[in-house]
Amino acid sequence: MERELAKVNDFYQRKQALFGARFENIKRQQQIYDAMLGSELGGERALPAADGSQPPSPGPSVQLRAAHTKIQRAILELYRGVDLLKNYRVLCYTALVKALKKYQKAARWCAGTDHFLHKIDTCYIATSRDLNAVAAELEALYVEKYAGGSRQKGMGALRVAPAGGDGGNQSSIFRSGLMLGVAGPLIARAIYEANLLSNEQRVPYHRQLLQIYGSIFLVLLFLLLFSLNILAWVKTHVNYRFIFEIDPRDHLTAWQFLELSSLFVLIASGVIWVNFAMHIDHGSYICVYALLGVLLGVLFLPLKLVYWTSRWWLIRSLGRVVCSGLFRVGFRDFFLGDELCSLSYTLSTMLLLGCAGANG
């Protein structure tokens, strides 16, 4: 127990010193930023227009805006680390005390445990308040500089929601159910129309088209079922956000992931219904190309819509897989590469589509 207590104290002390040094560095960076911002805006205000009037300030430069974002992210990340270390302190203290109580109950001996309990109560992790001071200063700095003085807004940004915090997703669940409910009949009707004998002449190469659409829907089914993976990880307390290097303050819950997947399914079902039920016979593959264009367009849409930060995470991850070998890879790269191997049928069918289109 003494060895464990010494190990815990040493680790906590080193991490606390590290976080303290990082906080001092952030404060220096913030001071430099404030001075540069004041100098830049003051210089702009000092230059009158030709008519003698004072022009409106255009705001900070691109470099200063980038620095502002980096300092804000550094504060958020440091606060998260401080919060984790505070939880570590509570967890270790509780573990040591409970171990003593179990020992006392089994050995029926109080003298040694009382002596050691006093040692725990007076050790560094129990008496140090430096970490609380760092957390309070971080909160004050963030509220003043990045939350407009609103403590409620600032603390809302600083605090990390628990991994299982799926509350407030009723709208995502409703939209997912609505989209899947519309998509189901469209797919059923399209398959029925595709297999009618009268449609063999109306929709050329309809069997090949069904094969291609099937390969696309395989990916979409894959995405729908992946939301069950996220639910299972949350229920079993697997910290998937840490494993996949996902921002804990900005990530999709299982229901939001299902909503995004349902949107893709609805788009695909609408296109396949148009292709077969509307008898699109001008250019057999025109609807497939349109579908791929829309799906890729939604995925790569460079606007802050449709869960942009999560789509950007996936785009960067796919880029890391494509460029693997040029830099060090991590677990998420292996995981995503393995999932792509599971979709080899789809990828090979896309090659078939390219050959079919190129050769008429």
UniProtKB/TrEMBL annotation:
<protein>
    <submittedName>
        <fullName>Xenotropic and polytropic retrovirus receptor 1</fullName>
    </submittedName>
</protein>
<keyword id="KW-0675">Receptor</keyword>
